[in-house]
């Protein structure tokens, strides 16, 4: 370093001042500068640089005053060199200089100091696909691209013999997923516990994740981000019995599951939906009969079914949507471009679909037959019904997308606006 070199030269000059008479004698007797350098080095053990520094001293520096100033400067320099060497030899000072920036992380005192899986797993969107035989797959939403109506679609993967798709939902990795079985029992597991797989993979058997009894099937899966007091679970059985239970009652579920609903012999729990106390319920039978129920319905026969008919689907109509619908009903659409939403989206087992304005259906009480929502051909019947129109563009049309899954596992992701709006009686 430069300051060490300067100090080294100063030491040589100090030696020269202490032996000034001898230095003058050597210089006077030398025949050249190089000879004087050699003489000084031999006489006082100086280096070549130190000897040259002594020779470079001007005569005016040899006065008592100048020499005193030089001694004071040299002493100050040597003290500074000593301090710098001490600082450089200290590990603490080296680290302070090297990592002088403020700490960017935060240290906290915790009870155990251990990280859980959920602390390091990103809370990303995901798709869950469930088959009738209990095989579950977790996939990325980008697995299925947007397609046009009427296209073949993309397969969700090979299904086992006599197996078919049962449920298909969107959730997030940190969600609690509630698994409801046909026997009325509910189980719980975090979404990230399900192994992620490709579109063509077979999936994970639910018996590897849940403690299912022999012959028990999962019929509905519900993702829950947070258990809040003002939310409920609406349950509907195949025979049309409906029940509403506070969501908080399912916040702590043991590994063996808990009973969600008591069933009569021959009945099974088929559909479960999240709702609030003010929401409305739209339900449909395989024969295309539709009913809209008001709030506060629980533990009763929701819909009177005709002989040979059974429940096909259920969905929730948010209270805000229904209230907005009542406001819009005062201003009928006379544009001739179809009635405004929201709508009920009907999908038949043969793949036909239509939208019917929600305003076409009245609210009724429990244990009624319901209204015709879809006229089917003899070989077709209703597969599912959804409420759409939550998000609408400036032209009043839906700007939503819907993912449709066939029993064979073919997935189609299409725009809702591409599905025609028709009356209740249209085929």
UniProtKB/TrEMBL annotation:
GO annotation, cellular component aspect: cytoplasm; DNA topoisomerase type II (double strand cut, ATP-hydrolyzing) complex
Keyword ATP-binding: yes
InterPro entries: GyrA/parC_rep, Gyrase/topoIV_suA_C, Topo_IIA-like_dom_sf, Topo_IIA_A_a_sf, Topo_IIA_dom_A, Type_II_DNA_Topoisomerases
SUPFAM superfamilies in alphabetical order: GyrA/ParC C-terminal domain-like (SSF101904), Type II DNA topoisomerase (SSF56719)
A GO molecular-function descriptor: DNA binding
GO biological process: DNA topological change
Keywords noted in UniProt: ATP-binding, Nucleotide-binding
The keyword Transmembrane belongs to this UniProt entry's keyword annotation: no
Domain (Topo IIA-type catalytic) ranges: 12-95
PANTHER family registered for this protein in UniProt: DNA GYRASE SUBUNIT A, CHLOROPLASTIC_MITOCHONDRIAL (PTHR43493:SF5), DNA GYRASE/TOPOISOMERASE SUBUNIT A (PTHR43493)
Name of the protein: Topo IIA-type catalytic domain-containing protein
